[in-house]
Design brief:
16% of the residues lie in helices and 53% in strands. It is of the alpha+beta class.
Length: 141
């Protein structure tokens, strides 16, 4: 009986891993924020002290765009690198903004390379331009 219960538990853990409920990979491990200026794909579930990333796609535009995060984001993640690098970093309304050049002929793709800071559920603001939204990420220990 104990062996069969163990197999059921093991199967449930494997299925949760396949769907991304226990870390990177799978459809439930990533959230998406969409706005007229572009979209942001960021982790819904991550692991403590593990690398992760945010993928930003900026819509074609004549003007530069700003990707915003707030200070609570930097408590959950440290930004180890940005590809391509931002033109400037600014601070407005209690948020940190990363200014990027955009191309009027096609979308611009940006990758923020992150490292998780501390386990737990972390809420933060993230967005593009004036479209900023409250989101959260659960970081497993």
């Amino acid at each position: 009986m104990a062996q069969r219960v163990s197999w059921v538990i093991f199967t449930l853990i494997l299925v949760a891993c396949l769907f991304g409920l226990l870390g990177r990979g799978g459809p439930f491990s990533v959230q998406q924020f969409s706005a007229p200026a572009g979209s942001i794909e960021f982790p819904a579930i991550s692991r403590w002290n593990a690398p992760d990333e945010i993928r930003v796609t900026l819509a074609p535009s004549q003007t530069d765009q700003v990707v915003y995060v707030d200070a609570r984001f930097l408590e959950a993640f440290s930004i180890e690198g940005i590809d391509p690098p931002q033109k400037a970093t600014l601070q407005q309304h209690g948020r940190i903004g990363y200014l990027f050049s955009t191309d009027p002929s096609g979308p611009a793709k940006i990758v923020f390379r992150l490292r998780t800071q501390q386990p737990g559920l972390h809420a933060y603001a993230i967005g593009i331009g004036d479209d900023v939204s409250e989101r959260s990420t659960f970081i497993f220990p």
